[in-house]
Design goal:
heterodimer, A: mainly alpha, MetI-like fold, 2 domains, two-stranded antiparallel ribbon, 2 strands, disordered C terminus, B: mainly alpha, 3 domains, about 70% helix
């Protein structure tokens, strides 16, 4: 339900072109130092909370609340990591999150890929209205849908199960994914599919054998986008499955470390680091394509 | 570590996938019979392609919205609970409840006139939300634009700066927020430690209404700048260099070329980014909810207030009306902004 900006491939021209700088030609050393100084400060502020949480996670348990700024604390130890992995349900939460997220991302991707094909290649009544309606869904605050979804889930006996949560996750990213994929399909020449159909493919075979393989980058990005949205989702999970501790996803668990009477700093810091590493790595890896699909859709629409 | 629940979770996920698959099969089968066999419609293929997503969106967005609209006209709560259903029951009181729960526009009147939460009225929360949104988006755009301009040049270590500055966006939001909340801890959080170093005793970020609100804004500015920076950097890189050279030949100084070349050409990228940024900030639930810890009403925005009205006070009917008021506000903003910015764009191009 949380909307995150999507990532789409950056046009090759923009990627390969290193700019000489809008105003940066022939700058003096003073200006250069100022630029570096500002960027360094910005980078430091951006990274600071991350360094802090790493630092706290390495502290021995009797010094968790020490007032100190060393990144590697004296007596650094991995005992918090060992504790959070062996003595809490953290690993279980991670596995739960992973199962739900992978399952719903695949379903969401299939729904979006087929719908986007219809929007891209067919004319049918309600097409324009449908595309606008998909954009309009992005306006709706997730919180607004919580009450009806919660009450309906209670009545259908879906609260405290994954069924309701997963169906919701599968669908929430679909409107955005359709826009991205439709935009990408539109750039693939229809002649390729027509040629395949001349060679005896049906229309759907042409979609499956020609367009889908050609759209792999966009499909990968949509999958990533679906994955991140579901992986990081908190409030719907809290409403739907907080009552059953066996089903908790990691966001519910981590906030529970903090919300109890006594915050478990060591557990919280270590689990935060463990959760963040793969996601940050994935994100930075995909940042090669990281210019927004958001504005692409907006400009075109 | 207790992994005994994992097989159950795997089974649950598989069952869900099978249910979704069966649902899709039923819908497609029915459509096949209807469109292909019976109507022999030309539109069979596209409609069948769209059907699964369409059914899903109707079930998860359209139906709940109509349901909520309907509930907004009742006085349903946890103690007066019933399912009014739709659409046959739209504006009709519950069949299975002897009491007439239909209250007409009363909830809408209450939203405007009575406290939405325990103390805070609608207009106070609206005012907080407007300040929250305007301050955040302003800082996001200014900060993002500033950093994008700095990075849009030949620079040693540019890739490293970029990767580091993007990190707040990359981090799972819940983790970032949990970390920030600990830093606002008055005794050993980093802010009060730093203030302590220069001899100021810092405020109580978690309990003081004003400083808690400031803390929320600081956190969200930190979270939101990377997105704006990445988008605006993409926009800057698409501006042809020749235009700057032409401006230079015409004798423009740095400010003039920024004002007359960069800004107008950035507008097509900036307008949708600002609209999206505003909608996301307005709708942002996690930041106020976690930083505030769901404690101070003075730190509530409209959406966290909605969460409380529904899940803390369980006034479902009231929450339904409240939710629609929020939705209409957002809709009005977007229509207004698209009109306004569209008009200015057609003037400049």
């Amino acid at each position: 339900m949380t909307t995150q900006p999507a990532v789409t491939p950056l046009p090759v021209a923009a990627r390969t072109r290193e700019r000489a700088g809008g105003t940066g030609i022939g700058e003096g050393p003073l200006k250069r130092a100022l630029v570096h100084g500002t960027l360094f400060l910005a980078a430091l502020i951006a990274v600071f909370p991350i360094l802090r949480v790493i630092s706290v996670s390495l502290r021995p348990s009797n010094e968790l609340l020490e007032r100190e700024f060393n990144i590697i604390p004296p007596g650094a130890t991995f005992e918090n990591y060992v504790h959070v992995i062996t003595q809490t349900d953290f690993v279980q939460w991670l596995i739960n999150s992973l199962l739900i997220t992978v399952g719903t991302s695949i379903v969401g991707l299939i729904f979006a890929a087929t719908s986007a094909y219809a929007f891209s290649r067919y004319k049918f009544p309600g097409r324009g209205v449908g595309l606008t309606a998909l954009l309009a869904t992005q306006l709706i605050p997730a919180t607004m849908l919580l009450v009806p979804i919660f009450v309906i889930a209670v009545q259908l006996d879906l609260q405290g199960t994954y069924r309701g949560l997963m169906i919701a996750y599968s669908v929430t990213s679909v409107p955005f994914s359709i826009w991205i994929l439709k935009g990408y399909y539109d750039t693939v020449p229809i002649e390729l599919e027509e040629a395949a159909m001349v060679d005896g493919c049906s229309q759907l075979e042409a979609f499956w054998r020609i367009l889908i393989p050609l759209s792999t980058p966009a499909l990968a990005i949509v999958f990533l986008f679906n994955f991140l949205a579901a992986w990081n989702e908190y409030v719907l999970a809290r409403v739907m499955i907080a009552s059953n501790a066996d089903l908790w996803t990691w966001p519910i668990g981590i906030l529970r470390f903090q919300a109890q009477f006594q915050t478990q700093w060591g557990d919280m810091a270590a689990s935060s680091v463990l959760v963040s590493i793969p996601i940050v790595a994935l994100f930075l890896y995909s940042s090669r394509w990281l210019v927004n699909g958001v504005t692409l859709g907006g400009v075109k629409g | 570590m207790d992994l005994s629940t994992v097989p159950g979770a795997i089974l649950e996920v598989l069952v869900t996938l099978v249910i979704i698959g069966l649902g899709v099969a039923i819908v497609e089968g029915a459509l096949y019979l209807l469109l292909v066999r019976w109507l022999k419609s030309r539109l069979a293929v596209p409609l069948m392609l769209i059907a699964p997503a369409f059914v899903g969106l109707v079930a998860l967005i359209v139906y709940p919205l109509l349901w909520e609209l309907n509930v907004g006209f009742t006085n349903m709560s946890i103690t007066r609970f019933c399912d009014p259903g739709i659409p046959a029951g739209l504006f009709v009181h519950c069949k299975d409840n002897p009491n007439n729960m239909f209250v007409g526009m009363q909830n809408y009147v209450d939203v405007m006139t009575k406290p939405v939460l325990l103390q805070a009225g609608f207009f106070q929360v609206l005012w907080q939300t407007v300040i929250w949104t305007v301050v955040n988006v302003t800082f996001h755009v200014l900060g993002g634009l500033g950093l994008a301009l700095l990075l849009n040049r030949q620079l040693r270590g540019k890739g490293v700066y970029r990767a580091l500055i993007v990190l707040p966006w990359a981090m799972p939001q819940i983790v970032a927020l949990a970390v920030w909340r600990t830093e606002y801890q008055p005794e050993f959080g980093v802010f009060n430690q730093l203030l302590g170093l220069v001899g100021i005793s810092g405020p109580n970020w978690l309990a003081d209404p004003f400083w808690n609100f400031v803390a929320m804004i600081i956190t969200n500015v930190w979270l939101g700048i990377p997105f704006m920076m990445v988008i605006l950097l993409g926009g800057l890189q698409s501006i042809p260099l020749e235009l700057y050279e032409a401006a230079k030949i015409d004798g423009a100084n740095a400010w003039q070329s920024f004002r007359n070349v960069t800004l107008p050409l950035l507008r097509p990228v900036m307008t949708p980014a600002i609209i999206l940024g505003t909608v996301w900030t307005f709708n942002n639930f996690n930041v106020p909810f976690v930083i505030n810890g769901n404690e101070l009403e003075t730190s509530d925005t409209l959406v966290t207030g909605l969460f409380r009205a529904a899940f803390q006070y369980y006034r479902f009917g009231f929450a339904g009306a409240y939710a629609f008021v929020i939705f209409l506000l957002l809709l009005a903003f977007v229509i207004f902004y698209v009109r306004a910015s569209g008009a200015t764009r057609s003037v400049t191009e």
